Amino acid sequence: MPLHQIKNLLDAHAQRILSGDAFDAVNSLSASMFDLRMGVEESQWRSACKPAIVSHQLYEVLDQDPYTGRARRKPRGYAGDAVMLDYLYDREPPPDTTPLGREIFKSTVSSPGADAVRWRLQHVAGRIDSLQRLNRTVRCLSLACGHLREAALSEAVRHRKAMIFAVDRDPRSLRVVSKKCSQFDVDTICASLLDILNGNARFAHLDLAYAAGLFDYLSKPAAIALTAKLFSMLDFGGVVIVPNFLSRNPVRGYMESFMDWNLIVRSREEILELGSAVPQDGTCARRYYEDPFGVIGYLELKKTG
Q1: d(Cα 67, Cα 11) in Å, to the nearest integer?
Q2: With contact defined as beta carbons under 8 Å apart, do 240 and 178 qualify?
Q3: The predicted structure's pLDDT at residue 245
Q4: Is the backbone of residue 294 left (phi > 0), alpha (psi -120 to 50) or beta?
Q5: Angle between the 3-18 and 22-38 helix axes, to the nearest 10 degrees?
Q6: Burial (0-12, 13-18, 19+ Cβ within 10 Å), 252
Q7: What pTM did the predictor assign?
Q8: CA torsion 274→279→281→285, rounded to 10°?
Q9: Do 261 and 167 belong together in one domain?
Q10: Fewer CB within a 10 Å sphere, N or C end of the chain?
């Protein structure tokens, strides 16, 4: 798309948003950004399209949305921190959000991407419960746990029939977990990905291991190594869940342009490849599936021997 057409597209959406049609206009903008992002080469996107978007007045208008704005500012060093995800889970903006920011927020936290993150949360809680129904108690590892919102959604956790090792590198997130989950069987551990990979943080006999929002930030070698490491921690019948945003997810354009949120997105084949270091000797059952929104793909590995 020529740059003058990008400007015209942004002008039209800015006018709609400022005229009181923020919710539908942001939905339309997100769809247009997906078409634009998928229609150009990576080099053109970075050298021409994205600079044109960042320099447009619409970029500043959308900063009034706390979800979009926090992603840009990255107060904890990266987009998608636990506070940002709570925006999606609770759908409540901060009290100081402007009226226009609130309208934009209603749209961004209702996007397919937001729906997919909420589905992921429910899915993980459901897997804890389904595994618990096969055992008297289950042991789980939540890596890069954030605020561990799945704990309150899991019947097994609420009834103390599941225990979770909640691991995160951010002590602020772990303090929230300790406070919110004090009545559950949750053990908070401050550790990094490197601690997991080099064995400084060790876990064993797990029924479930997952990293709900981590693989989207990992290089291919790191993601493959982590998947194999998590699998090695499982007990017989245990499961590893590997979620990753898909390369053609419908919110990619808006995230990369207006939120400066650049995930490592992958195709179905690339997600399946993350299990390539797990033994192919019949001790692992593999399953791939996607959420209903076409946003996140899942690799699930079950230890069968």
Answers
A1: 22
A2: no
A3: 98
A4: left
A5: 160
A6: buried
A7: 0.96
A8: -50
A9: yes
A10: C
Cβ atoms of residues 204 and 274 within 8 Å: no
Q: For the segment 25-76, what is each residue's pLDDT rounded down to a tens digit?
A: 999 999 999 999 999 999 999 999 999 999 999 999 999 999 999 999 999 9
Beta strands in 98-205 (DSSP E): 138-143, 162-168, 186-190
Confidence of residue 217 (pLDDT cuts 50, 70, 90): very high
Look up the domain containing 169 and give its range: 114-303
Task: Look over the chain and give the mean of its residue pLDDT values, rounded to a whole number.
Answer: 96
The DSSP 8-state label assigned to residue 266 in this structure reads B
129-183 pLDDT tens trace: 999 998 789 999 999 999 999 999 999 999 999 999 999 999 999 999 999 999 9
Q: Are 205 and 281 contained in the same domain?
A: yes
Same domain, 296 and 178: yes
3-state secondary structure of 260: coil
Distance, CA of 274 to CA of 11 (rounded, Å): 41
Burial of 10 (0-12, 13-18, 19+ CB in 10 A): buried
At residue 2 the predicted structure's pLDDT band, cuts being 50, 70 and 90, is confident
| Same domain, residue pair 224 and 85 | no
Give the end-to-end CA distance of the chain in Å, rounded to a whole number. 53
- 254 φ/ψ angles, rounded to the nearest 5 degrees: -65, -45
* Total domains in the fold of the chain: 2
Is the separation of the CB atoms in 226 and 199 below 8 Å? Answer: no
Summarize pLDDT for 76-120 with one digit per residue, the tens. 999 999 999 999 999 999 999 999 999 999 999 999 999 999 999
Question: Using CA atoms, how far apart are residues 208 and 191, in angstroms rounded to an integer?
Answer: 18
Residue 304 backbone zone (phi > 0: left; psi -120 to 50: alpha; other: beta): alpha
